[in-house]
Amino acid sequence: MIFSHSWSQIFTGETITLRCEIQGGEGKVWKYEWTAPNTNSPPTSSEYRISRVSVSHSGDYRCRGSSDYLLTGWSDAFRLTVSFPSKPTVTLQPSWTQIYSGETVTVRCEIQGGEGAQWTYEWRAAKLNTPPTSNEYRIIRATESDSGGYSCRGRRDYFFSEWSDIITLTVSYKPKAKLRADNTAVPVGGSVTLTCSVSPSSSSGWKYYWYTDEKSSEALTTQDAVFHSNGQISVSQEGLYRCRGGRGNPVYYTEDSQSVRIGKTVTASNRPVVTLYPNWSEIYRGETITVRCEIHGGDTEWDYEWETNSMIKAPNQNEYRIRSASSSNSGNYRCKGRMKSSQHETTEWSDSVTLTVSDNVHSAASLTVSPDRVQHFTSDSVSLTCEGNFTEWRVRKFSEDGRLSVCRRMTGSTCNINTSESDTGVYWCESGSGEFSSAVNITVQNDGNGPILVSPVHPVTEGASVSLSCSLRTHKILSNVFFYHNDKLIQNDPRGELKISAVSKSDEGFYKCQYSGRESAQSWMSVKVSLIIILLLLLYRCRQSKCKSLFSVINIVIIIISIDIDISLSICHG
């Protein structure tokens, strides 16, 4: 038996012909018999043609012939296997869906199980005027017009496979490498790390090549630098460095990065000093303090670098203000300067200054502000009154420009201010014997047409209610006001008021309001621990210790009223 095709794989829908030939039977008239799966009336001719073959036609086929009284034996079985055609797959070589103008990429159509068959291929592509009939489509020096979807299908005789899924190819302009240095000055005995990258980061297959002005066309080797993974090198020699990326074979290069000059570190003679304003090395939670880096001598302009073991990283400025301090601000602070005119010349590190933020405030002095709000308009009358068991008082101010001053308009224990912009600052009371109150912020609005935020001066106790509002000089009550917490819009209230019924620690932060397109300045609202919780804990301790008299409980209440937050007393006897 002879099969009309040499294909080892037949797919459903194709047409095949099996032929029965009797060797040496030439000149006789033969009739033929066939055994075949799934057929009721096999042919009697020498050819068995199956149009649009299906899986049910799979099986063994035999034939024999008869002429007059002569009958041949059955032929050997021919096994026919029919299967459903595989869906073609489009692949890219290299396998990058993101390529760049000028690169070469091959688009390939693969039909699993169709090996050995003589396929002709059809393509659907973004840019194909004369599509190829082979299984590969090679794009040389790709351009943006080659971007788009590619799909294919196979054909042999009159049979067509399905279309493959579409694979999308994106061709972008030739990229430019990016060079970043962790420092532009090599420290004495050290090195600088340079990082080269190609955007977008999703593009892959890049190797990186490094160059200097001394070797403008020759890439650096391990003799010139220490090479790391992820496009990084470490260099210890000064010079002008640049990089580029490359991938593929032959290598396709990006444009060169911008050049970065690396120099040697030179230590300036000036030594900085870290100072605290106010000059308190220990402050209490919720207070405000400024840490400043001062470099004396000459008119040099400096950039600043800070080093601290506190949980809060200091900014690269000569000073930064800690508002509503917490224990996370505790730590050592030191700084150094870098000349703006020569980024390679720096000072030594300053000596460290230790700042301690305590949770316990044992102060016998207090300060009240009237009106009780942080923000005020110019020409407002504001009074700051010191309270406590002292006869001599002074109100101190630490202004935004770093000056420390004393209120000169004291009437008894009250400082009276007719506000101007220069009155913005931090205020506190100090007794003649050195006791001082917690500090408060006062902000004076210079924009006569803008609103102010009405917010409490002192920290709000956790669990208490608080109301914030927005006010103009001419209108005390506004409607349709926007309120922001840490620059995030939280409420648009037609009543012009933001009410928080039970304050929690998450409500702490900066607040501001907006009315008719104008914004107020922002003010910090602090939240302190509720004394009720402390009272309940102490009552529980008393009960566990079996306090013998109500006097012990009353004593607890008196002690709590007399202090701000924490309590450390032995309250039970026996």
Describe this structure in words.
Helix content is 5%, strand content 42%. The chain is mainly beta and 574 residues long. It folds into 6 domains: 2-83, Immunoglobulins (Immunoglobulin-like, Sandwich), CATH 2.60.40; 88-172, Immunoglobulins (Immunoglobulin-like, Sandwich), CATH 2.60.40.10; 177-264, Immunoglobulin-like (Sandwich), CATH 2.60.40; 273-358, Sandwich (Immunoglobulin-like); 366-528, Immunoglobulin-like, CATH 2.60.40.10; 531-570, no CATH class. The strands form 15 sheets. Strands 11, 13, 15, 16 and 17 form a 5-stranded mixed sheet that branches. Strand 48 (481-485) and strand 49 (488-493) form a beta hairpin. Helix 1 (531-544) runs antiparallel to helix 2. The longest helix is centred in the C-terminal third of the chain and has 14 residues, at 531-544. 25% of the residues are buried. Residues 531-574 have low confidence and may be disordered. One of its GO terms (biological process) is cell surface receptor signaling pathway. It holds the Pfam family Ig_3. It comes from Maylandia zebra (zebra mbuna).
